[in-house]
Amino acid sequence: MRQDKPGVLLVNLGTPDAPTTSAVKRYLKQFLSDKRVVDTPRWLWWPILNIGILPIRSPRVAKLYASVWTDEGSPLLVFSKRQRDALAAKLDIPVALGMSYGNPSLKSAVDDLMAQGVNKLIVLPLYPQFSCSTVASVWDGLSSLFAGYRSLPTVHFIRDYADHPAYIAALKASVERSFAQHGKPDLLLASFHGIPQRFANEGDDYPQRCHDTFDALKTALGLSDSEAMLTFQSRFGREPWLTPYTDETMQGLPAKGVKHVQVMSPGFASDCLETLEEINEQNREFFLHAGGTRFEYIPALNDDEAHIDMMLELVNQYR
Ligand SMILES: C=CC1=C(C)c2cc3[nH]c(cc4nc(cc5[nH]c(cc1n2)c(C)c5CCC(=O)O)C(CCC(=O)O)=C4C)c(C)c3C=C
Ligand SMILES: [Fe+2]
Ligand SMILES: [Fe+2]
């Protein structure tokens, strides 16, 4: 008889191996070659990417990575490893970490679990809100990996957890800590990573899932419509992305009387380039330059105990 041997696969996006032009180029090449991320026809995208984007973007983005890099490495990887270790400490089954792009690869993580005899895989992509550009890409990555296996594990794939009560409670506690430390701001701004508007028009329910998180959090905190706002960051390329844009909003808030803002990025399970640099450095600067007086960044849930307990709850549904 086949006996279940469960194991957990935590997945996140991935990050360069070093804050150098060559490592960033390698990472961006893999990331931006994924059709789930950029769906331009390959014959057209290949020269744009290899001749236009990579040579110019890689050295610029390497400098940005250098500004957030720690002694232990890239923040995204450092926090993801801490999450893996903290979750493993609460479980009696193996837990592995795999990244969609870069290292540790999805393959290394799945091979590690299979080598321990795991035949029931509980996959938790660490994206609270589903998007075809992230969660579906994990799905694709796994299925192409499995194409090379003779036997497949049972797979439980957690699609997202945008309005899971334990996730909302963990976010709420993080906001309350910030309010207690810095006082209640004029506005709580929740900035989510953007996607092209076209992806949503074609059926990606990502914007709805962001609103689900935002609405549940606003209700849990008892905030009115004027006390909290949702925006989208990290626009890439020329076509319209989800609006309102975080950077334009930041620049316009002081003129509307918002002088004290607290910003969180509930779409990121771990702090990373997009939160530590884009929000806490670039957007801080935009806001203060436009006449804002106080800007505080509320960290991602990272390895908060409430966050790890939420992961435990999600995983335990499938044990
Ligand atoms: C090109 C289009 C992109 C889409 C679509 C996209 C969606 C998307 N991304 C995240 C989470 C993260 N993105 C990160 C970095 C990053 N994202 C893009 C582009 C798209 N993202 C690029 C090119 C980069 C690299 C940096 C840069 O060149 O500007 C990261 C941070 C990684 C790190 O190493 O710290 C995360 C996390 C989500 C959640 C999402 C869709 C919902
Ligand atoms: Fe991104
Ligand atoms: Fe960015």
UniProtKB/TrEMBL annotation:
Pathway: Porphyrin-containing compound metabolism; protoheme biosynthesis; protoheme from protoporphyrin-IX: step 1/1. GO terms for biological process: heme biosynthetic process. Fe(2+) binds at H193, E274. One of its GO terms (cellular component) is cytoplasm. InterPro entries: Ferrochelatase, Ferrochelatase_AS, Ferrochelatase_C, Ferrochelatase_N. Belongs to the ferrochelatase family. NCBIfam families: hemH. HAMAP family: Ferrochelatase. This is Ferrochelatase. The gene is hemH.
